[in-house]
Design brief:
Mean pLDDT: 96
Largest sheet: 9 strands, mixed
Oligomer: single chain
Shape: elongated
Bound molecules: uracil
Strand content: 25-35%
Radius of gyration: 22 Å
């Protein structure tokens, strides 16, 4: 059960400031389960209660889950002094909720990025113990070879000595491969191909867990998703 103050609840679900909300409560504009409540510190159960403002019910969302098609040049971070971030591309209603990217995608990579304010869910997607698949379309500066495909299957050892778990490298065309990882080390795909003297020219994430990046989502666009679209 999540007991929460009435003013805090409204603040978490709307763009009104705390002082605007207090005024609305004092003026009798707020009802809890149909009853007018005049106390901002009135405790409610956020999971069961119906709160209305001027008789319009507030649609309660405990957490928000978004999928974005990240463009090149955008950092998968919340804030940054020098670069635009994925969170910068979101409207105020989401920024206010402290939404953050669940997992990294390099600045020069494109494709599927999950943004949420649900820390447990983010951990389930990114945590190394969960082995959630992530699929990437990778364009190399050289040919995709059998040596790469075999090497990825066996598990690549990076220059640093870090061992990568076995991964799928599937040839799509001469210089393009689909790579499926179940972990997310820093610059992992670039470093894995580096072992085979190959450079990565383009890297696009097309899938996380069981969900593909929606094909109608243009670069920089995002949409709401249900967490069960990604994970079982
Ligand atoms: N591996 C990389 O090297 N970069 C990414 O953005 C994702 C996986």
């Amino acid at each position: 059960m999540g007991m929460i103050r009435l003013d805090k609840y409204i603040s978490s679900q709307t763009l009104f400031s705390r002082s605007e909300i207090r005024k609305m409560i004092f003026k009798g504009q707020v009802k809890v389960d149909g009853v007018c409540i005049l106390k901002p510190d009135f405790k409610i159960d956020e999971n069961t209660v119906k709160v209305s403002l001027d008789d319009r019910e507030i649609n309660f969302e405990k957490y928000v889950y978004l999928v974005m098609n990240k463009p090149k040049g955008i950092l998968s971070a919340t804030t940054d002094k020098n670069s635009k971030t994925a969170v910068d591309l979101l409207p105020e209603e989401y920024k206010k909720r402290n939404i953050f990217p669940a997992g990294r995608l390099d600045k020069d990579s494109t494709g599927m990025l999950i943004l949420t304010d649900d820390g447990d869910f983010a951990h389930r997607i990114t945590g190394p113990k969960h082995h959630i698949e992530k699929a990437y379309i990778v364009t190399l500066d050289t040919l995709v070879t059998d040596e790469m495909i075999d090497g990825f299957r066996k598990g690549v050892t990076l220059v640093s000595g870090e061992e990568c778990s076995p991964a799928v490298c599937e040839k799509i065309s001469d210089k393009v491969a689909r790579v499926i990882l179940t972990e997310g080390k820093y610059h992992q795909i670039k470093r894995m191909f580096g072992i085979f003297d190959a450079g990565v020219e383009e890297l696009h994430r097309e899938r996380i867990g069981k969900m593909l990046l929606p094909s109608d989502l243009k670069e920089g666009e995002y949409c709401k998703i249900l967490p069960e679209n990604l994970l079982d």
